Amino acid sequence: MIVCVAVVGHQNNPLYIQSFTDADDALKLHHIVHCSLDVIEERVNNPKKSGTTLNEAFLGLLYPTVNYKVYGYLTNTKVKFILVTTDLDVRDTDVRSFFRKFHAAYVDAVSNPFHVPGKKITSRTFAQTVSNIVGSYGLN
Amino acid sequence: MAPVGPRSGDAIFSSIDRVNAELFTLTYGAIVRQLLTDLEEVEEVNKQLDQMGYNIGIRLIDEFLAKSGVSRCVDFKETAEMIAKVGFKMFLGVTASVTSWDADGTCCSIILEDNPLVDFVELPDTCQGLYYCNVLSGVIRGALEMVSMKTEVTWTRDVLRGDDAYELQVKLLKQVAEEYPYKDDE
Amino acid sequence: MGREVAESCVDTMLMEMVAMYSGRFYANKPELAARRIEAIGYQVGHQLSERYTMERPRFSDHLEAIKFICKDFWSEVFKKQIDNLKTNHRGTFVLQDNKFRWLSRVSIDPSSENETEDPSTPGESKAAQAVSMYLYFPCGIIRGVLSNLGIPCAVSADISSLPTCSFVIRVKA
Prior knowledge:
The complex is a heterotrimer. Chain B is built from five helices and five strands, in the order αβαααββαββ.
């Protein structure tokens, strides 16, 4: 189950963060997202260490914690997408497809003429789309 | 030879030069946003968008007449249908419908269910009163004026403001007698 | 393929946008009109770069990003590629389009704005002024794209040999 997703700007400024658990662990999840930014930084600066293709947006598994797995994605415009899941058995294709849809939703949201680059994404349409993507994750 | 009837909007649209709607949509959005920054008053932005549309309309009418093969419509009713069925299709790739005629046939509504101008657009709360698509009403007004019909065009429904469709009321104020223009060079 | 509109919609809209800013709002302050037109282009470039880089790996250097503009980006917007790319390898790039679509299709006739024949401002230079005003828009687009890709720069256009148009990009160190 996806418990948290986030979009983070090129200066590590949070643009959107949403958790999907009933439990009161938002703070913990935000912390996990925050820590994952360093891992992304390191991955990108030392591309050889990662198993992914050079400069591919999808960064794969960033790090596993006891309870969560954290995945990352970095666009050409240096925007980071983070996915935190509790699933132990994660299919690579599911995660990739999730990020593709998440990325597309983001691009539509920042295409709104009234969106100010670098500012938090407040669009209701975006929030709804993301929650639909999270809901349909791994179902196909 | 049998007279060639007006071509369908679909046929014209598929034969003319087209571009990605994204470029069009985003450019219009950027213009609206810049106007809001520069003019501050939403009313003034509405006015400028309408003026911009009017100027576009008086340019596009020639292309419309040339490409559609429509001979100048005399009747306001027929003209409104042409705008909806052929005009919207050949320029924006969408169809519109005409409804709500009044008894003397001088006022109707043009309804647009799909509108490429607003793809991606969500109005912020600070833009109450903005008629985001006001360029369209200006285009219709400008184009009709070039075929001697003076009209008043107003928005009666707007999806961005929570309605279920885009609806423009077009009211014929005055039909000027056709002054014969110079024959177009072929 | 996504949604499309008639090219004349874009052409007329750009013409009117330029006429509005340089003719009506800032007739006596061309540098202000230029800045606004450039800003509109910048926003469009910023947003389009987000869209058109969606499916591609991250660029590893400036040249790759510039090549993206020359090929993929130009094709999306103008249905052709840039004809010639030159660089001094020190941060200056010249992108040459031998038949820049917006100049070949757009006729900016000052006559519709101002019918009077004023001998003190020959039509030639007035038209040239209008064209250069118009070019702030694509310059803004290019700057918006590059800035969003993490490359701050200044962009200018050179139309000394029409219909060829060259865009000069100077990357800020």
